[in-house]
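Entry 14. Structure prediction run on the chain below.
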Amino acid sequence: MTKVFLVDDYPELLALQRVFREAKFCSQPDDVEVSHSPIVARMFERLIAILIANDVERDGESARLRWIQWLTIDESRDEWFAAVRRAGDDPRWESLSHAEQLDHARLLLSPFVVQPEIADRFVLAVNQANRQHNK
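Output returned:
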Protein backbone atom coordinates (compact mmCIF):
# COMPACT_ATOMS: atom_id res chain seq x y z
CA MET A 1 0.00 0.00 0.00
CA THR A 2 1.34 3.42 -0.97
CA LYS A 3 1.35 6.03 1.77
CA VAL A 4 0.23 9.54 0.91
CA PHE A 5 1.89 12.78 1.94
CA LEU A 6 -0.68 15.55 1.72
CA VAL A 7 0.01 19.25 1.84
CA ASP A 8 -3.17 21.27 1.52
CA ASP A 9 -2.42 24.35 3.59
CA TYR A 10 -1.56 27.33 1.35
CA PRO A 11 1.33 28.65 3.50
CA GLU A 12 2.79 25.13 3.57
CA LEU A 13 2.49 24.92 -0.23
CA LEU A 14 4.40 28.21 -0.53
CA ALA A 15 7.03 26.93 1.90
CA LEU A 16 7.37 23.76 -0.15
CA GLN A 17 7.82 25.85 -3.32
CA ARG A 18 10.65 27.73 -1.59
CA VAL A 19 12.25 24.43 -0.54
CA PHE A 20 12.13 23.12 -4.12
CA ARG A 21 13.55 26.37 -5.49
CA GLU A 22 16.36 26.37 -2.93
CA ALA A 23 17.20 22.71 -3.57
CA LYS A 24 17.26 23.05 -7.36
CA PHE A 25 18.90 26.46 -7.68
CA CYS A 26 21.09 27.06 -4.61
CA SER A 27 24.57 28.38 -5.30
CA GLN A 28 26.43 25.65 -3.37
CA PRO A 29 24.47 22.38 -3.70
CA ASP A 30 25.17 19.45 -1.42
CA ASP A 31 23.26 17.06 -3.67
CA VAL A 32 23.69 18.05 -7.32
CA GLU A 33 21.44 15.20 -8.47
CA VAL A 34 18.41 17.15 -7.23
CA SER A 35 18.81 19.63 -10.11
CA HIS A 36 19.15 16.85 -12.68
CA SER A 37 16.25 14.73 -11.42
CA PRO A 38 13.22 14.36 -13.70
CA ILE A 39 11.21 13.27 -10.65
CA VAL A 40 12.03 16.49 -8.77
CA ALA A 41 11.24 18.52 -11.91
CA ARG A 42 7.81 16.88 -12.29
CA MET A 43 7.01 17.35 -8.61
CA PHE A 44 8.04 21.01 -8.74
CA GLU A 45 5.89 21.56 -11.84
CA ARG A 46 2.89 19.92 -10.14
CA LEU A 47 3.41 22.08 -7.07
CA ILE A 48 3.51 25.25 -9.17
CA ALA A 49 0.31 24.20 -10.97
CA ILE A 50 -1.45 23.79 -7.61
CA LEU A 51 -0.19 27.16 -6.38
CA ILE A 52 -1.38 28.83 -9.58
CA ALA A 53 -4.81 27.19 -9.29
CA ASN A 54 -5.11 28.32 -5.66
CA ASP A 55 -4.05 31.86 -6.45
CA VAL A 56 -6.38 32.13 -9.45
CA GLU A 57 -9.28 30.85 -7.34
CA ARG A 58 -8.50 33.41 -4.66
CA ASP A 59 -7.36 36.43 -6.71
CA GLY A 60 -8.65 35.83 -10.24
CA GLU A 61 -6.81 35.84 -13.54
CA SER A 62 -4.41 38.54 -12.42
CA ALA A 63 -2.79 35.88 -10.24
CA ARG A 64 -2.16 33.68 -13.29
CA LEU A 65 -0.48 36.63 -15.00
CA ARG A 66 1.79 37.15 -11.98
CA TRP A 67 2.79 33.48 -12.08
CA ILE A 68 3.38 33.60 -15.82
CA GLN A 69 5.68 36.55 -15.30
CA TRP A 70 7.52 34.78 -12.45
CA LEU A 71 7.86 31.58 -14.49
CA THR A 72 9.46 33.42 -17.41
CA ILE A 73 13.16 32.63 -17.15
CA ASP A 74 16.03 34.49 -18.78
CA GLU A 75 19.62 35.48 -18.14
CA SER A 76 18.64 38.05 -15.54
CA ARG A 77 17.55 35.42 -13.00
CA ASP A 78 19.68 33.78 -10.31
CA GLU A 79 18.07 30.46 -11.19
CA TRP A 80 19.45 30.78 -14.73
CA PHE A 81 23.02 31.14 -13.48
CA ALA A 82 22.64 28.25 -11.03
CA ALA A 83 21.33 26.00 -13.81
CA VAL A 84 24.15 27.06 -16.17
CA ARG A 85 26.67 26.13 -13.46
CA ARG A 86 24.98 22.75 -12.92
CA ALA A 87 25.07 21.98 -16.64
CA GLY A 88 28.68 23.12 -16.93
CA ASP A 89 29.72 20.97 -13.99
CA ASP A 90 28.02 17.90 -15.42
CA PRO A 91 30.72 15.72 -17.01
CA ARG A 92 28.12 14.30 -19.41
CA TRP A 93 27.23 17.70 -20.92
CA GLU A 94 29.95 17.70 -23.59
CA SER A 95 28.96 14.23 -24.81
CA LEU A 96 25.27 15.11 -25.22
CA SER A 97 23.90 15.88 -28.66
CA HIS A 98 22.48 19.35 -29.21
CA ALA A 99 18.93 17.95 -28.88
CA GLU A 100 19.88 16.23 -25.62
CA GLN A 101 21.43 19.45 -24.33
CA LEU A 102 18.17 21.27 -25.09
CA ASP A 103 16.18 18.60 -23.23
CA HIS A 104 18.58 18.80 -20.31
CA ALA A 105 18.28 22.60 -20.28
CA ARG A 106 14.50 22.26 -19.88
CA LEU A 107 15.00 19.78 -17.05
CA LEU A 108 17.51 21.98 -15.22
CA LEU A 109 15.34 25.07 -15.59
CA SER A 110 12.10 23.36 -14.56
CA PRO A 111 9.55 24.60 -13.43
CA PHE A 112 10.29 27.71 -15.46
CA VAL A 113 8.85 28.14 -18.95
CA VAL A 114 11.59 27.38 -21.45
CA GLN A 115 10.71 28.52 -24.95
CA PRO A 116 12.92 27.13 -27.75
CA GLU A 117 14.92 30.37 -28.06
CA ILE A 118 15.54 30.35 -24.28
CA ALA A 119 16.75 26.75 -24.41
CA ASP A 120 19.09 27.67 -27.30
CA ARG A 121 20.48 30.62 -25.33
CA PHE A 122 20.94 28.38 -22.29
CA VAL A 123 22.91 25.78 -24.27
CA LEU A 124 25.03 28.55 -25.79
CA ALA A 125 25.70 30.02 -22.32
CA VAL A 126 26.79 26.64 -20.95
CA ASN A 127 29.02 25.92 -23.92
CA GLN A 128 30.61 29.38 -23.73
CA ALA A 129 31.21 28.98 -20.00
CA ASN A 130 32.81 25.57 -20.60
CA ARG A 131 35.10 27.01 -23.28
CA GLN A 132 36.14 29.82 -20.91
CA HIS A 133 36.76 27.32 -18.14
CA ASN A 134 38.85 25.03 -20.39
CA LYS A 135 41.18 27.85 -21.58
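The mean pLDDT is 93.
Filed with the rest of this week's runs.
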